[in-house]
Amino acid sequence: MQPITIQHILLLSTALFFIGVYGLFTRRNMIAVLMSIELMLNSININFVAFNKYLYPENLDGIFFFLFVITIAAAEAAVAIAIIIHLYRYNKQIDVAETGEMKF
Amino acid sequence: METIIFYCIALFILITGILAVTARHIFRAAIWLLFALMGIAGLYFWMDLNFVAAVQIIIYVGGIVVLIIFSIFLTQQSGQKMAQASTKQTVFSMAAVVFGVAFIGSIITRFYFVESHNSMNTAVEHIGTQLMSVTQYGYALPFELVSILLLAAMIGSIVIAMKQKSEPKNN
Q1: pTM of this structure
Q2: CB-CB: which of B6, B26, B94 is closest to A29?
Q3: Exposed e or buried b for every residue in B83-104, given b needs 16+ CB within 10 A?
Q4: What are chain A's domains?
Q5: Which residue out of B21, B131, B165 would a mutagenesis test of the A interface target, given it has the greatest number of A Cβ atoms within 10 Å?
Q6: Considering only alpha carbons, which residue of chain A is nearest residue B162?
Q7: Residue B137 belongs to domain spanning
Q8: For residue A18, what pLDDT is reported?
């Protein structure tokens, strides 16, 4: 068997990203959409770390980007869940298609 | 041996990821997402990046998934199945996904990556001093910006989710 190169890891993260895209397209529930977005962010983190490890191991930029992405993902999840809970209190469901009050 | 372990981890991540976006019960989807994130942490362990894997487990598995499960408890009736997407929607998103994977995959397999054979210093001490340094390759300014962003997000989510009083008091 051939040894694992960076291309295998990039293919894995591509597949994971598009699994997240599939969830984003087909889910109707807002929390499920948020979960798909978390999957996509994770696949991007794999990319950053793999580039850092296999291409430029002298510096640690990939790891720092991983840390910043994870922080921003946590902040995003907190704000999104606050919005979802407020929306649920307001009109008792969190379906993406049924929520049109703020549509311009 | 390393190759076999990588393929096992990759298969685990992909299967649990697919289940996380296709499961009909949202609670089960959240549990599958938990397993997918732990599989990604396993991938970081496979790459010998122990600090990164630990951060992944602490923040994602211990923080974000717990937050998602709490919000599921607050907003869903238990045992309720989610609405299924229409067949047309499923077919078209599947087509888009297959096209995307084929396109990006063909670019990745054709591109010639020049791999470096230096080893990476992943001691936590080194990561910490590099992250907080203000010299070249230091990340002190983004660190401070991200901390302000976290503070803003915390205040913002408290303000958004706060219960409004139904009628103002007359005093």
Answers
A1: 0.89
A2: B26
A3: eebeeeeeeebeeebeebbeeb
A4: 6-91 (1.10.287.3510)
A5: B21
A6: A86
A7: 123-161
A8: 94
